[in-house]
Amino acid sequence: MTRWLLLAGLAVLVVLPFAGLPLYFLHLAILILIWGMIGTAWSYMGRFGLVSLGHGGFMGVAAYATALLWNEFHLVPWLGIPIGLLMSLLLALAIGYPAFRFRVVGHYFALVTLALGEVVRLSIIAAREHTGGSLGMTPERVQPPTDVSWYAMQFTDKRYFYFFALACWLLALWVWSRIDRSMARSALEAISEDEVAAASVGIHVTKEKLRVTLISAAFTGLGGVLLGLYQQYLNPESLSGIGISLEIVFAAIVGGMYSAPGPTIGAVLTILFRESLRTYFGVQLIGMAETIYGLLLILFIIFMPRGIYGALEAWLARRAATPPAAPSPGAAPIA
Fold this sequence. Notes:
CATH topology: ABC transporter involved in vitamin B12 uptake, BtuC
CATH class: Mainly Alpha
Strand order of the largest sheet: 1-2
Number of helices: 15
Radius of gyration: 22 Å
CATH architecture: Orthogonal Bundle
Structural class: mainly alpha
Number of strands: 2
Number of domains: 1
Helix content: over 70%
Distance between the termini: 33 Å
Largest sheet: 2 strands, antiparallel
């Protein structure tokens, strides 16, 4: 039954771009898929106690590397994307290996990653001659302008990017399921409970933590690249730093980081919330979204730590376990 439901859901997603929806709704669907993938990537680590507040750094490095390679060296995105992801992996390795090797855990690890995201953001701003600084940058358009350029991955039809985003999102969910069904899950759960005890039974703590961090960084970097290519605009405030990292954490925790669909549910709520603020308040409440994210994050951590999807699963489990009410003594038997 579950398999048929999954196939039906996938069929709906495939035909969605051909359903005649307004372009704005297709735009929202693309953003939801990309941010759902990024939230899923963060949850690879977050569900095992590796709370990162610097995933915006991985996004920024990969996105800017791909765009700069295209603008300055005319290296096509098909080659620039792997290089950008490699840079995200090197950044994750540079910050992850010493942190895990010297057992930097808990809030100390969160602070290290927080600093990482800010270092990337400030570095992008400092290199303004190439990146445009705080004003951002735009990837060069192909000459002459065309509606479809597979060479530069530039398309006027949003459906192309929709299927790119859908494929990457499905790949992220598949990796989630592989981690969930592998021995790595048991090892990481043991590490999150007690690193010393996990090491005493033969688990290579540094290796397991570093492996999941590299996978998370790669998919997060891929999300940053897709955002840059789709929007044709890169800005350090929207691709790196604490603001964007907090948005990732918010979506994952609110939706439910312990389940595969959870981060995508959180992405839906986050994007709808952001668009509502932008539509109804314009530029009058700039920065208010991050403030509300923080307040709601506190409330969810306290009252709904497993997120919306986790709370729904728990409610359905309790309802299924509740025995049916016994008939009253005076009730007539049913024929």
